[in-house]
Amino acid sequence: MGCCGSVNVDHPASQAHIQKTRGNGKGQDFVILGIKDQNMVGKVYLSGAPTSDPQLVASVDAAVKKTNTGVERGTDEHDKLWDIAWHNSKMTSGYQFLSLKKPFFPIGRHVVGLLDALGEHGFIPSAAPSYGGPISDKQSVEWPMIICEKDVEKQYAKETLFFGIKDQNIPGKLCVCGPADVIEQLKGDFASKLKQISPEATEAFDDYDTAKEWDLVWRNTSITSGMQAFSLAKPYFPKGKVVFTIIEEVYKLGWRLVSTPNFGGNDVDWPCFIFKRLLERPASTPALILAAMKDQNIPGKLCLAGAPEVGDVAKLLRDALIKVKGNDQVTLSKDEYDDDWDQVIRNTSITTGHQAFSLKTAYFPKNDAILAITNTMGKAGWKLTACPSFGGMSASWPSMIWEYTGEPWETAFVAIKDQNMPGKVCIGGVEKEVCEGLLNGFKVLSGPDCEQRKDDYDKEFDFSFRNTKMTTGHACMSMQNSWWPYAYPMELILGEFHKFGWRPAGGPNFGSMMLTWPAVVFQRKAGSGGAGAPAPRAQTSRVWLPTRESQAGIDLEIWEQLRAKTRCAWSCMSLWFEEADLSQACGSSPEPSYVHPDLQDDRSVDLDWMPSFEEPGAAFDGCGWEAWQPGQPGWFDEGAPFEAFGGLKALPPLAYEFEFDSNPRPSRGRSSSPKGPRTSRRVLGVPGAATLEEKVEQKYVGYLLGRGGQTVKEICGLWQVEMWFDQSTAKEGYSTLYIQGDPSALDQAKVGVERLMRSCDKREGSRSADSDFR
């Protein structure tokens, strides 16, 4: 932050650095779009490596020139750290000094034309953080930034369907623009559903929202709580059931929500939804969940609406949040202000709150709380699809929308604190290797005084960069616009994150009054990593591997059945017994070593020739359940012996039941479908006993287990505690050790574990610590 931040940035050096990173292949899949309508000369900006494509620029040029007369492409001294700028564009209603028309409300046809031009070249909006801040004690600015990503999976058509929510108006309106065929479809079942949730809604244009600007306008809609001038209810808080119904009905037409930008300024907020048409329309629509954070309220709340599974999801989120500092009193409870929501988690603390008597910034997001929400949803199979932000009258209500995919996801979080001295970029949930490239880039883009260091205000985050300049700052005594975002620093973040497999999923906005804290949530499939990520440790996919010594316990006929089902030649059998011989990994113990299906362990070995085994809950092709004789350790044999691990408990079963198809088929094992949503694993233990939770580097896990689980067994017996590992995070380099028992025994057990880890460092490579234990 600074007085006219752009003056303090070395523009030529910044441009040279970005060109260098583009040459290294970073950020090639992203285009950043900026809209500067709250300016005397409206502007549209474009930045990113793909802007070197003359055809893409020509398409955008044609679309922008349709927005107004006299549009020219060029740059001036106020357009630094962007690649291309168009002047005299008109994307919103603009200033409305002497009019009853609402200011800065987007013009649907112009936005759709611009997004269609990008879609023609395969770029789809994926996140839309909004920047802004105060320019006086009565006025503020808001700058929408739309991050577009290359549709490498070829999921979407180029067409755009755009919704503008105009609830901060009398009457409330829902304005729509898109292809003619879907507009006609929206007049059918969608209109009927809309009238059920907003009975007074009528289809009609007026002088303020005309057919020249929009394809469809519904008046008298009620999508948020409204002004609430004489009520204790919060203004313009979204009505969860209404918003969910609107999105669900559009999904039924074969469209998907991809991004949710915010327009506005000067105390008005216009949340918008961008949908893209699927190239292949599925037979059914995915389950959806909407969550809205109500931290600018006493008590804080997380409100949920959506699919029938929302009750189970609410319990998952409650259990995750209760472990986060400041959220130990969370409960599931609704009151008279929550009728528009299915479930409400009360007493939440997701941001820093009001901060009336503190130097801490107000309503800045807490990393641990945000990641507790997003990671819990991701592990349960819910993919974050967009982060709309509602608000008005100095209130800000960040929200999130998930689709159920059944695949586990992991998330990361970036929060930008430019309205602060010093400016900061705070990051959580990523590998430390990501920060190396970021620091080098920030030192060029923001100045050599930029450093990676946390202070007492950032301790919830994993990493923090100080003295960053993500915007122009408070541009006093200058013609530069205050708080206008730079594209190059965001491109730097996108490129470094993408190197490790992270993709932007949404841009929630936090803040209060005139404070604005833009953020971006990234996600990736669990365990996917990226080109720059450390190689994951080799592991099995929930397979029991017998050693050479135990092979005699299984008849040759069984091995033949396995060979037939995996469609392998017999040469693979030698590979099975040679390279998968666990006796070399676990020491010279003559006893069989087992890997429990729900426990990843260093002793497991990855076999590339093996088929892919999916987690229970999805049908799979591979080894058959019927191939194993009763009483023998099978691929998913629930009766397999646990005593080989001694006192160690494996991860508990999933918190839902399965229906198994027992009908034997030649190339099919068993198929299962959950009766409820996929949920995260729960920790077993004795009710009422104290539990200690410790993160342990993965390199120590096998050492602490000992041969056959003997080490853990001795610890449990010596101090009368229960111990078990949660290794679901093994690919991230650590596991969680749970120790449960009498509080006085927990400290002794912890000291013993720490002593064993120190011993492991001295005897690197050893797999058993029995001799050092005492």
UniProtKB/TrEMBL annotation:
Q: Which UniProt keywords apply?
A: RNA-binding
Q: Where is the K Homology domain?
A: 688-758
Domain of life where this protein originates: Eukaryota
Q: Where is the segment annotated Disordered?
A: 660-682
Among SMART domains, the record links this protein to: KH
- Keyword RNA-binding on entry: yes
List the GO molecular function terms: RNA binding
Q: Give start-end positions of Low complexity composition bias.
A: 663-677
Cross-referenced InterPro entries: KH_dom (IPR004087), KH_dom_type_1 (IPR004088), KH_dom_type_1_sf (IPR036612)
| Protein name (Swiss-Prot/TrEMBL) | K Homology domain-containing protein
